Amino acid sequence: xxxxxxxxxxxxxxxxxxxxxxxxxxxxxxxxxxxxxxxxxxxxxxxxxxxxxxxxxxxxxxxxxxxxxxxxxxxxxxxxxxxxxxxxxxxxxxxxxxxxxxxxxxxxxxxxxxxxxxxxxxxxxxxxxxxxxxxxxxxxxxxxxxxxxxxxxxxxxxxxxxxxxxxxxxxxxxxxxxxxxxxxxxxxxxxxxxxxxxxxxxxxxxxxxxxxxxxxxxxxxxxxxxxxxxxxxxxxxxxxxxxxxxxxxxxxxxxxxxxxxxxxxxxxxxx
Length: 271
Description:
Elements: E1 2-3, E2 11-12, H1 14-17, E3 22-26, H2 51-65, E4 72-74, E5 84-86, H3 88-92, E6 104-107, E7 113-118, E8 122-128, E9 133-139, H4 141-145, H5 148-160, E10 168-171, H6 184-194, E11 201-202, E12 211-212, H7 214-224, E13 232-234, E14 259-265
Parallel strand pairs: 4-7, 5-6, 10-13
Antiparallel strand pairs: 1-2, 3-14, 6-9, 7-14, 8-9, 8-10, 11-12
């Protein structure tokens, strides 16, 4: 990943940064107004942070990106395998005024910034440069074992005619296999979901429990859905190891803010 100049210290994926009329980003903790333990660019209204501070942080992100604040779509993520298409009908029905319950959103509409908020879960950004279709995915362990990333690619294919071989993907910062220790219950779910634990769960000498490699699991879903491996960029940044840069639920013992990954196809108004 590459970092950008500016007060919010946004990260970008190198494989998406060169696409014309496309803005994408991953936020950090930097540049906001929230106080500890939500310091400082907490974007999650569902946290115990003061709502007015979260709204001020969202306004700062809008200013930094040049996207109108009312064009950001923040979903209510429920750790599911569900995917929602944001089309003209959804816009007309007022979806930008709501927080739809879904863990992945897809659109072909320019000017709409799809957002996914995380604090250890995996944010995945997808873009088809031929069909001009964008998507974001919230892939926690529950969403990952429900194949949320695969589901999103399937909807991009069926609804928009996307060719997976042309889709570009970015797997953002999240808790890494270095830190994501899980119990036997998760181990059994992983085996049932993927038919094996090999590659998905990592054993370490110092721990009786395995470590879940969410990066591998989602990369495997992408390639299994037809993406070219060279079109997939993995940040390989562990949020728990880098909790001074990114929010981490485990590092904060469940009390922390949310950073976000977003993507927006630009219009003449926000280029």
